[in-house]
Amino acid sequence: MKGFTIFDGAMGTMLQARGLKAGAFPETYNLTHPDVVRDIHRAYVEAGAEVVTANTFGANPFKMKNTDVESVIKAGVRLAKESGAKKVALDVSAHGALLEPNGTLSFDEAYENYKKIVTWGAEAGADIILIETMSDLLEAKCALLAAKENTSLPVYVTMTYMEDGRTFLGTDPVTATITLSSLGADAVGVNCSLGAADMLPLVEKICAYAPCPVIVQPNAGLPKVKDGKTYYEDTPEIFSAAMEKIAEAGVTILGGCCGTTPEHITALKKMLEKKEPVLRETPSYTAATSATKTVFLGEGVKVIGERLNPTGKKKLKAALLEGDIDYILKEAIDQERAGADILDVNVGLPELDEAKTLVRVTKELQGTVSLPLQLDSSSKEALERACRIYAGKPIINSVNLKKESLDAIVPIAKKYGATLVGLCLGDTMPKTHEERYAFAEKLVAELTARGIKKSDIIIDCLVLTIATDETQAEETALAVEKVTKELDVRTVLGVSNVSFGMPDRLKINAAFLGQCIRAGLSAPILNPLVTEYAEVLQGKLISLDTSAYFTFDKEGAEGIRGMIFCGVVGGIEDAVREALKTREPLDIINEDFIPALDEIGVKFEKGEVFLPRLIAAAEVVKRGMDVLRTGEETTGEPDVILATVKGDIHDIGKNIVKMLLQSYGYKVLDLGKDVDENDVVDAWLRTKAPMIGLSALMTTTVPSMKRTIDALRAAGSTAQIAVGGAVLTPEYAKEVGADFYGKDARETVKIAEKVIRKP
Amino acid sequence: MDETRLLKDALRLLGAKKEDEEALSLLERVYRTYASVFRPRAVYSLLKIKEHSPEVRLEGYAFPLVGESIRRHLEKAEYALLSAFTLGIAVDQKIKELSLSRPSDAVALNAIASVYAERIADEMLAEERGKLEEKGYKTTFRFCPGYGDLPLGTNGEIALALGAQKKIGLTVTEKGLLLPGKSMIGICGAEPKDNEVKD
Q1: Strand A128-134 vs strand A640-644: parallel, antiparallel, or unpaired?
Q2: Which CATH architecture has domain B3-192?
Q3: CB contact under 8 A, A330 and B88
Q4: C-alpha A683: how far from chain center
Q5: What is A559-629's CATH number?
Q6: What's this model's pTM, rounded to 2 decimal places?
Q7: Under DSSP, is residue A207 helix (H, G, I), strand (E, B) or coil?
Q8: What integer best gives the mean pLDDT of chain B?
Q9: How far apart are CA A122 and CA A282, in angstroms?
Q10: How many CB atoms within 10 Å of residue B18?
Q11: Where are the domains of chain A?
Q12: Which residues in chain A have their CB less than 8 angstroms from residue B96's CB?
C-alpha cells in the first residue's frame, strides 16, 4: 500500500445516526458529546484510515454566530488526535453564502474568517488543512491563501461537482485543478456530490492536469430518500471496486464522503493493499482560467481582446473616470460575443487610483463575463491586489528585462500562479528578430531562475511600427517563429502597433496578423470586433506589399524642393552642392528646405500623406543640411533639449521630433530615453536652452513627466516645456504643468517656431 | 413543461396584454435561446410533527417553526414536508449580462425564469406529494417563510437542515433572502385522509 494515503469517511452521517438533529451544527458535538466524536474517529482509525478529518467542517464564525468557534475547532482537532490517527486534517469548507458579486459576502471578510479557522486549527496541532466540498473557486482560493499565508501546513483542496461535471457556480474540474495547483495547493481533487463510479470521468480529467497529488473522497453512491430519510446506496464492496478504478487513474489520496462508514474504509484499505500507485506524467500546458473556463495557449490561435484599455479611447476613459462600470462591462460582453478568448484589462490613468480601479473592474468583470482576464499594468500594487481577488489563473501583462520590473512583478506572478507575459524589452529596444530572440531567451532564463515555470511564460516579441522602419513587421514575425520553434514557448503580440502612423491601418494590421499566425503566434492582442481580423482568424489569406507605402510618387521630384517633397533621398547632396555655387546656404534653407517641409507637413496634418513620407522628407533635408554644414561650426548652445522621461524607453516619437526640428535648423540636445529628472535639470542649467521637449508613451510614466517638470521649475528653469507621446492629451499636458502639448512632430516644430522665433 | 402556458404566464407577469404578439415573440425567442441555463434542483425532507403548540416542533429538527400562521397551516398535519428548490446561479448571471447588453431580453428572461421556477418547483414537489397520497395523506400548499408571521429567517434554518447549500447550491443571506435569486423554500403539511393512512 506504499504510496497511497487513506483518509476517513463521513462524519455527519455517523453523527446523525447517533442522534444529531437536522439543522443543528454537528461541530457543537465536539463540546457537548466529545466521546461520540472521538469514538467515530477511532472507528475510522481501526478501519485503516491514516488521516482522520476533524469535526470542523462547518465551524466558521460566519455561520456559528453565538458559538465559541475557537473552542469548537480546537476541541475538534484534539479529539481527532486522541483517536490515535497518524495524521489529523483540519476540515474547512464554504461559508454557505455567495461571494461578491454573485452574493454579498466580501472576499476580505471571508479571508478573515478562514484566517481565524486555520490559525486555530494549526495551534491545536492539525497536520493538514483540508478545504473541501467547495463550489466557488474564488472562495476555495480565498481559503487556500489564508491557509498558505497563516500556517506552514500542507493544504489539500477538493471541489464538489454535479452530474453535469460542474460545480453549482459553474467551475469545471480542469479549471479548478489548474487554478488551485497554480496557487500552490499540495493536493487537489474532488469530494462529495457523486458516487465513486460516476466520479471517474471527472477524476481522469483532474489527473491529466494536476502537477500535484490528487485526492478523491466520493459519497457512497447517490443519495436516495426513503420515508423522508436520506440514505446512500453503495455498499463497501461497490465503493471499493469503483475506488480501484480511481486509484488506477493515478489518484494517491483516497477516502470517503457522505454515506461512507468505517466498513467502506476497511474495504478501501483492503483493495489498496494489493495495488501500486500509478505514476502520472507531469503535465505541461500554458493556460489562463476564469472561474468557469480554461483557455490553453498554443492550441490554435487565441484572441486577447484589447478594448479595455483607455489609451486612445475617449469613451472608455470617461467611463473609468466617472466609475461607469456598466459601460466597461458592456465592452467586455461585446468582445466575448465577437469571439475573444481572453480579455486584456488596463485601467491605467494618471488621475485614477489604479489599484483600487483594477480591483473593482476585475471583480465586476468576473461576475459578468466568463473569459479569463489578462491583467495589464506595471503597478505592483494594482497587480497584486487584482490577482488576489481574481477567481482563476490570470495572465499578467507584463514583465520586461529591467531589474525593477523583474523584482516587482515576478513575486506576484509566482505567488498567485499567474501566467506571465515577458516583453522583449530591457534597457534597449530590439530591432532585428535575432535581438528579439536574444531578449526572449534571457527572459525565459531569468524568469525560470526566479521560480516561474517555463510553461507559465508567454513571450511578447514587441511590435514596433513599420512607419519608421519598414522591416519591423517581418522582423517581428521571424522572431515569433524562432521563439516558438527554438525556445518552445507561447507568444503574444499587440498587433495594431505595427501600423502606427500609417494609412490603411486595418489592412496593414490584418496582413501582419496573418503573417504572424503563419509564423506560429499563439495569441494576438487585438480588437475582436474588427471584421478584417475575424476573416484572417478564419483563415483568409491577405497579402500586402507594404513597400508601396514607402515608394513615393516621383512626379514633381525636381529641384531641391521637389526632392524633399517627394522624399527622394538619392541625389540631394549633388543638388545642394550645385545650388551652393550660386546661392547662400541660408537662402537654400529658407527658400527650399523649409517651404518643402511645410508643404509636406500640411499634407501630413490633413492625413493626405503618412509618417513614412514625412520621415523620408526629413531624411532628405538632413542629408542636404550635412552638405550645407560641411566645414561649418555645428556646436553651440542647443535650442531644444529633448528627452524620453524616466521609466520609459520608447524613443521613436522623440527621434522623429528631433529629426524634424533639425531639418528646420534647430540645434537639438538629445538626452536619450529613460532620462532621470536630475539629468534634464543639469542639461538645462548647463545650456539654458529656451525649449525642452519631453516624451512619454506609457500612462505609467506620465507621473515621471510631471516630476521632471516640477524639478525643472524648482531649479528655476525658464525654458518653455512641450510634452508629447501616445498617451498624452492636452488635458494631461496641462495637468503635468507643461506649457505646450505637441500632438505630433509637425506640431512640435510649430511650437519651436513660437518659442524660439527662428530661423 | 407546457411552453405555451409558461410564456402566457410570463407575458402576464410582464404586464403585457394577451394579444401583444411582439412581446410574445420576444418571450419565445428568449426562452428558446436561454432555457439551457436553467438547472433546476431540489431537496426534501419529511419530518414527523412532534408538537403542534405552542410552537410547531418537528422530530429530529433543531428549530421550532414560529408563529400563528404556520401553526394553523400544519394544524391537521402529521408530517411536515420541507423543500428547497433553486433554478441555479447561471440564470442570475445571464440576466445580469443581458441587462447590460440586451435589456429587453433581460426583462423577458427574468419573467420567464420566475414563472418557470414556480412551475418546476411544483412539478418536482408533485412527485413527493404523490408518494404521500399513496400512503393516504393529502398535502397542503407550499407555505413559505415570510408568509403570515413565519419569519423570513426560517429560510436559513430550513436550508441548513436540508443541507441545501451542499446539495443544491442554495444559500441564504443574513437577512433571509435566497441566492440564487430564482429559488424557494417551503413547508407542506401532510394531513391524513379519513381512515386511509397506511403504514
Answers
A1: unpaired
A2: 3-Layer(aba) Sandwich (3.40)
A3: no
A4: 38
A5: 1.10.1240.10
A6: 0.89
A7: helix
A8: 92
A9: 31
A10: 10
A11: 11-153, 187-280, 286-540, 559-629, 640-756
A12: 367-368
